[in-house]
Amino acid sequence: MNLTLASHERTWLLALLILWAGLLFGGFLLGSASLDNSHRMPTWTRMGSSLTLSVAAWSWWLFTRQNEDGGFALFIAIGMTLGFIGDLFMAELLIKGENHILAGIAAFGLGHVAYIIGLVRYSNHAELTGSASRWGALLVWLIVGAVLWFVVVYRGSNEPSTLHYAALPYALLLAGTTGIATGLALQEKAFIPMAIGAALFLFSDLLLAAQLFNGANFPFINDVVWLLYGPGQMLIVFGARWSLLP
């Protein structure tokens, strides 16, 4: 990946990164505990942190659109934007009632399709297509995703619903993103942060699924979900590109 950013572009991206951290971690440190003790982060700081990453992702595309890596940045920006829309659905800011969960899953799922397309396109273009790394990592993570879905979502339910079963292909999709990113990281170490980010996203969603479908609960569980999910998305948006800058 051949990236060269001007000084003001670097400064802008760094400012967005600092803003994201302030919203996410500041919301947790300075927020007040909710009545049910499930979170400290206000909704506006969570949504603001996600919006900030969307702006950062599109900024990466804007700064790199003229070179050969612009296509990669475009798919990451599309994926992050769909993730932000998914956050709005899950917070019931766009749809009220039980359908907000399915809408959120759909948005996040489409976002991961975009991530996978971007990763595969880049790995093919850069000739980082080693079969053992790509397919081996993908297979391992798909198995991990299926096992975690069974343990966290399915086994804990007395009467599995449509949502429980819908969570399986969704978990496999997220595991697929992690697998593709891991396969790329095994061949190009600069993608290690991105692979870690995809894994954090997967783990955050499995914890959220355990809460939504099977009533899992402990103090500040919603904050723990976001403290996995937020850094996961940040590493997907910033991880590979920043470490590859000259």
Summarize this structure briefly.
The chain is mainly alpha-helical and 246 residues long. Helices cover 76% and strands 0% of the residues. The protein is globular and about 50 Å long.
Topology, please?
Layout: H1 7-30, H2 43-64, H3 70-90, H4 99-125, H5 131-154, H6 162-185, H7 192-214, H8 221-243
Helix pairs in contact: 1-2, 1-8, 2-3, 2-8, 3-4, 4-6, 5-6, 5-7, 6-7, 7-8
Tell me about the largest β-sheet: none
**Relative strand content:** under 5%
> What is the alpha-carbon Rg in Å?
18 Å
Number of domains: 1
What global shape is seen?
globular
Give the low-pLDDT segments.
none
Tell me the span between the first and last alpha carbons: 10 Å
Overall mean pLDDT: 90
Number of helices: 8
Number of strands: 0
Query: What would you call the structural class?
Result: mainly alpha
- Helix proportion range: over 70%
Helices and strands, in order, run as HHHHHHHH
Question: Which key terms come to mind for this protein?
Answer:
246 residues, mainly alpha, 76% helix
Written account of the structure:
It is a single chain. With 246 residues, the chain is mostly helical. It has one domain (7-243). The chain is built from 8 helices and no strands. The radius of gyration is 18 Å and the shape is globular. The termini are close together.
